[in-house]
Specification:
single chain, 4 strands
Length: 180
């Protein structure tokens, strides 16, 4: 997570009352929990994309992965993808256009309604998602090696307990930032 601009920390919430960073308090302030969870998420995503780039997917970005998940196995229209991601049809369309250009998706007529165009993943799109899943398994194994299997299972279990099931796998995080 980038929090420095020209050598200056721009995350003021974390700076307030921080004390010695080498000795964190036993119970940190409440705002640290979401930042640490996001930092863990961002670390996993960044490492995933570095690996994907090295393995033949250098132009694939996190937004593309979310969009490919939103396309699903049955295909989807740009409007449906936008709704699933919490972005406008136009924003979804731009991401879909990029996936088409990169060979991860294709458009086809909807057999049920000739006026609609469905976006489907190509074999390259499915291969990228399959490789992503395998890399996530490898990254989880690294966390197990660093923290121990019991701690990782406890962390996952605890998150399952506090994250409502209906929001656990929502893709529309961009709507938090004011994007329609």
């Amino acid at each position: 997570m980038v929090d420095h601009v020209a050598g200056e920390n721009v995350n003021q919430v974390v700076d307030i009352g921080k004390g010695d960073p080498r000795t964190p308090p036993a119970d940190g302030p409440g705002y640290e929990l979401p930042l640490l969870l996001f930092g863990g998420f961002r670390t996993l995503i960044d490492r995933l994309h570095a690996r994907l780039a090295a393995e033949g997917h250098p132009d694939l970005r996190p937004a593309h992965g979310f969009a490919m998940q939103a396309v699903g196995t049955q295909g989807a229209t740009a409007s449906e993808i936008g709704r699933r991601l919490g972005v406008s049809k136009q924003a979804a369309g731009k991401t879909v256009d990029r996936l088409l250009a990169l060979g991860y998706a294709e458009r086809a007529d909807d057999p049920a309604d000739a006026r609609r165009k469905l976006v489907h993943l190509t074999p390259r799109g499915y291969a990228a998602l399959a490789r992503s899943a395998a890399i996530f398994d490898e990254l989880r194994a690294e966390w197990v090696a660093a923290l121990g299997a019991d701690r990782v299972r406890d962390l996952e279990g605890a998150l399952r307990n506090v994250v409502p099931a209906e929001t656990a796998f929502r893709l529309d995080a961009t709507s938090w930032l004011g994007t329609p």
